[in-house]
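Hey, quick one: can you model this chain's 3D structure?
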Amino acid sequence: MTSNEPAAHDAVVLAGGGARRLGGADKPGVRVGGRALLDRVLGACADARTTVVVADPRPTARPVRWAREDPPGAGPVAALDAGLRHTAADDVLVLSADLPFLAADTVRRLLTALRAGAVEGALLTDADGRDQPLVAAYRAAALRRELAVLTAREGGLTGLPLRRLTAGLDLTRVPDPVASFDCDTWDDIAAARARIREHDHVLDEWISAVKDELGIDLDVDTGALLDLARDAAHGVARPAAPLTTFLVGYAAAQAQGGPEAVAEAARKAAALALRWANEAEQEKAEQEKAEQEKAEQEKAEQEKVEQEKAGQRQADKPGGSGPDAG
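Sure thing. Here's the predicted structure for all 326 residues.
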């Protein structure tokens, strides 16, 4: 690892709870925005070197390692101990599997806060200022130390609340009422589903869902692609918008490039759409000019005819200047 590369970290995701407040439903598998809650969390911690999920194995969008506390259902401290045994990095994310709004940016903020000082953990606080120890980054050595202390003092870890573990750690807090939101009840699930369909969130949520569904791990400038789609729709025809963005993606894939290839293909397509629109505008202007000139010519000819008719009428009057006058 070079000095410019971020330090490696692992992740432990606790997904084996009983979900009693959901009537025993399979909470990690509940879908919010078309994606299972567990897959949403795994997407947020995709940069982890090793991700361990403490639960019975199931299909997931990303490859993980599986672990299980002994006995199953022994509680979060025992589950954390089981997951931690499969990690080796100095820093470890500890996450619950019911965080619909956890994002990679939040994970990075937690790791930055952990590494900024001499603390042993950085955790989120919710809208009421309460600690959320299952949305946190910890020093793995500090967790192992406290787990050993608890095991020796209590004779085991079964049934212990997580605060018994974190009470011995030097922690820093990162307020985030959105990312710390967890789904314990069906009302929470309904609120999460409603929020992602709000105008301000739906596009980002949809893009993330599509990328996960297609197995794409590529961050691109969606603003530039939307501008391209708008230009194609307005300057060419409405169906040109989706077809053009598809062709941009296809071109980038053929070039075997990443975000830079997408940006270059989008730039070329946008320039073409602009030329197309300008040509149409120029043609429209030229047509309007020709029609105006034609109208002016027809008006002049009509005025000439009217003048000639007026002159003839004047000549036909008695005493006029016609040939029989005088």
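One thing worth noting: The longest helix spans residues 259-316.
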